[in-house]
Each structure stands twice: as C-alpha cells, then as structure tokens.
C-alpha cells in the first residue's frame, strides 16, 4: 500500500482509496466504486485485525518488512516519526 504525501489517499492493487472521516465503519472509500474500507497500520502486539482475534493476511512482498517491524524496525516511510 502506498500513500500520498498528505496520507489522505492510499493506492492499493490498482485502487485509489480516499480518506473519508465520519463514515460509520470505514475510514477510506474507493473513488471508482464507493466501496468502503478500514485501513490501519500494523501493531507490534499483533492485534492487527479490527474485530476479534485473527491473524492478518500479509502479502508475500511485505512479509520481510512486517517481520522487521515486529522486531522493532520502523515502517518504510515512517522512519522519522
């Protein structure tokens, strides 16, 4: 997932997602389909899912970065805060 410089737009698998405050059960929506999404970052305590205990799905290209994050490394793009 990539974000715009202002973090108000996310790009994921060819979709453009816009931040939408005030939505009941979502914080981003697809600009083409209006489909709603909940986007949040990973957590070191592995409580990454929104509802209930479940393991998150990690894309193959992100596994190394995710495990480095769990071991204390900053997320790419968040090295300075």
What does this structure look like?
The chain is mainly β and 81 residues long. It has a domain at 2-37. The chain is built from one helix and five strands; from the N terminus they run βββββα. The chain has one helix at residues 63-70, and strands at 2-3, 9-12, 15-19, 28-30, 36-37. The chain has a five-stranded antiparallel β-sheet with strand order 1-2-3-4-5, with no helix packed on it. The longest helix is centred in the C-terminal third of the chain and has 8 residues, at 63-70.
* Major sheet attributes: 5 strands, antiparallel
Q: Please tally the helical runs, counting DSSP H or I stretches of 4 or more residues.
A: 1
Distance between the termini: 18 Å
Shape: globular
Any low-confidence stretches, pLDDT <50, length ≥5? Answer: none
Percent helix among the residues?
under 10%
Integer-rounded radius of gyration: 14 Å
**pLDDT averaged residue by residue:** 87
Instruction: Record the strand order, biggest sheet.
Output: 1-2-3-4-5
Please write the string of helix (H) and strand (E) elements.
EEEEEH
**Would you report the number of β strands?**
5
Percentage of residues in DSSP E strands: 15-25%
* Structure classification: mainly beta
């Amino acid at each position: 997932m990539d974000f715009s410089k202002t973090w108000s737009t996310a790009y994921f698998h060819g979709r453009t997602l816009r931040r939408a405050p005030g939505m009941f059960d979502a914080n981003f929506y697809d600009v083409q389909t209006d489909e709603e999404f909940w986007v949040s970052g990973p957590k070191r305590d592995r409580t990454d899912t929104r509802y209930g205990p479940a393991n998150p799905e990690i894309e193959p290209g992100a596994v190394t970065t995710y495990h480095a994050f769990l071991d204390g490394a900053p997320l790419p793009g968040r090295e300075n805060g």
